[in-house]
Design a protein that fits this description.
The protein is α+β, with helices and mostly antiparallel strands. Helices cover 56% and strands 19% of the residues. Bound molecules: zinc ion.
């Protein structure tokens, strides 16, 4: 599937189109031809926006009508986190309430990337690879409705929203649970690093989720679960990865990665308060060495015994 049709649809400026095409082709090589159709459909369904010229990622999202007021509550990533971020992938289901039933009538998707090409072209590529990574891993069956709940899946992340109708007849969704964010961010960061080094810049160094990426690398490289992870990320089938990592142990690992990720975000949020930051970093290191690695070792010991 040729990139040409994507360019025909969005008509990106030539310099950007060349960059997006390189990323698209690297994705098919890295994730494998079995995911080519998903990658093509994802790029076809989603416009890439740039932020810059004094506007941050958050402001570009608002300007294009992609953020709703109540969306921040309970979510692991807050609006303040978004204002600091170098890029974002955003997907939103438009839900209507018709004849006593909730129905998904549209799915809005977009990507916003900070335009820092003049500062670091390598970092610009890495941000596109990271955000487009979220895009392709959440594209298939990302949203479904069960009764009065909206379920969203993005890679390994599972979120559930309570649906209700306000006095104006508009459907409101309120996030009630979210899991798998730490593991998904870690793996997506691991992929970002691998793709950058293999296709674009052998000397590439991660900035951002360095710890999450390293933790995911430890898990993926040592348990040989790449196939099972991709099946879960691209197609929403978590059965194989859960089975391979001993079901409840997988759930524990996922939960510990969420806790580490939350501390990681808190650290970024306190970047100008050195004392506070050191304290959070200390807690995070403890959480990793005393809790996360315990679960990891338990899986390793049991999986090892099976062989
Ligand atoms: Zn991410």
């Amino acid at each position: 599937m040729n990139y040409y049709r994507i360019q025909e649809k969005f008509n990106y400026p030539d310099d950007l189109a060349a960059i997006y095409q390189e990323v698209y082709e690297a994705f098919i090589k890295y994730y494998g031809p079995e995911h080519e159709e998903t990658i093509f459909n994802a790029f076809m369904s989603t416009k890439f926006h740039l932020s810059g010229n004094g506007k941050n990622v958050y402001e570009v999202l608002v300007e294009n009508g992609f953020l709703k007021e109540n969306e921040e509550e309970n979510a692991m990533v807050s609006f303040e986190d978004l204002k600091r971020s170098s890029g974002v992938h955003h997907a939103n289901a438009v839900v209507e309430y018709v004849n006593g039933e909730y129905k998904i009538v549209d799915i809005e998707r977009c990507i916003v990337i900070s335009d820092f090409r003049n500062y670091s072209l390598s970092q610009f590529f890495a941000t596109i690879i990271h955000e487009a990574g979220h895009l392709v891993k959440g594209h298939n069956d990302g949203f479904r409705i069960e009764g009065d709940k909206l379920h969203n899946r993005s890679g390994l992340i599972e979120s559930i929203y309570q649906l209700s109708v306000n006095e104006k007849g508009k459907v409101i969704d309120t996030l009630i649970s979210e899991k798998g964010v730490g593991l998904e961010e870690g793996i997506n960061t691991y992929d970002e690093e691998n793709i950058m080094k293999e296709f674009f810049d052998p000397d590439f160094k991660l900035s951002g989720y360095v710890t999450m990426g390293a933790l995911a690398r430890k898990i993926l490289d040592n348990f040989e679960i790449t196939h099972e992870v991709r099946e879960a990320q691209f197609n929403g089938n978590k059965e194989e990865i859960r089975e391979k990592l001993l079901n409840e142990k997988y759930d524990e690992l996922e939960h510990k990665m969420d806790e580490v990720y939350a501390l990681n975000l808190e650290m970024f949020a306190n970047i100008f308060d050195k004392e506070k930051m050191n304290e959070i970093a200390f807690n995070m290191r403890n959480k990793i060495s005393e809790e996360l690695f315990n679960v990891y070792d338990e899986i390793r010991d049991s999986v090892g015994k099976k062989k």
